[in-house]
Design goal:
Elements (H helix, E strand, L loop, with lengths): L6 E7 L8 H9 L1 E10 L10 E6 L6 E5 L5 E8 L1 E8 L6 E8 L3 E9 L18 E3 L4 E4 L10 H6 L4 E3 L5 E3 L5 E5 L2 E3 L3 H10 L5 E7 L15
Parallel strand pairs: 1-15, 2-8
Antiparallel strand pairs: 1-13, 2-5, 3-4, 3-6, 6-7, 9-10, 10-15, 11-12, 13-14
GO molecular function, one term: carbohydrate binding
InterPro entries: Carb-bd-like_fold (IPR013784)
Protein name: TonB-dependent receptor
């Protein structure tokens, strides 16, 4: 029996690899902040993985950045412009935590440990069903299992819009957690589609043909700065 081929999208962005024009960019970077913190559960001693963090500015134009806590419950927002922000932390089974009036005026801001309380919603009946997790966390990546999502009628571009921290603008510029320069790999091979060509491809690709999407915030040494792909 022939099976429909599945596509595995692997997105990479390179951090601190390209050293061109460092002097000319140093002033611009000094005007932004790195905002970070750690999310803990009130019932556990270790960090809470998979917390969705949303950072929204108060001043116009309103900007929004997204992040997901990693293995130790750590999250971070880079290149945050000076100003006041609201931070929202949410996770299934926990009460949403909102922190208002975070002033970003320093180069590095550490919020420390933040604790999410369990949801106090009363349930008349508890039904436990086994459900395949959508997001899997590994040491160097997190993987979105598309087959565990409801994607009927969706295209690839619709799917990307549903994943926290991923943004594809109208010009086809792809960013991950606010960072551009994302490399796209399809079934282990680098794709050089960008801009409108990438948009057209994702609009024509059924989401049901995608098996999973891997996100690697820190690519291994096997991927060079020129984006030549795996050696």
């Amino acid at each position: 029996m022939l099976l429909t081929p599945r596509f595995v999208f692997t997105f990479y962005f390179l951090c601190g690899v390209i050293g061109l024009a460092i002097l000319s960019l140093s002033t611009a970077f000094s005007q932004t902040s790195l905002l970070s913190g750690q999310v803990n559960s009130v019932t556990e001693t270790r960090g809470l993985v998979g917390v969705h963090a949303v950072l929204t500015s108060y001043s116009a134009p309103i900007t929004t950045q997204y992040a997901v806590s990693g293995n130790e419950g750590r999250f971070a927002f880079e290149n945050v412009h000076k100003g006041l922000y609201r931070l929202t932390l949410s996770h299934v089974g926990y009460q949403t935590l909102v922190i208002d009036s975070i002033a970003c005026h320093q180069q590095r801001i550490e919020l420390g440990e933040l604790t999410l309380a369990l949801s106090q919603q009363a349930l008349e009946e508890v039904v436990i069903r086994t459900k395949k997790p959508v997001i899997h966390y590994e040491s160097d990546r997190f993987r979105v299992d598309v087959q565990a999502m409801h994607t009927r009628g969706d295209q690839g571009i619709d799917l990307l819009g549903r994943i926290p921290g991923v943004k594809l603008d109208r010009d086809g510029e792809l960013s991950l957690q606010g960072k551009t320069g994302v490399l796209v790999y399809i079934n282990g091979k680098q794709s050089y589609l960008t801009g409108n060509a990438l948009l057209s491809y994702l609009k024509s690709l059924p989401a049901s043909d995608i098996a999973s999407i891997d996100f690697l915030p820190t690519p291994s040494a096997s991927y060079d700065a020129a984006g030549s792909g795996a050696s």
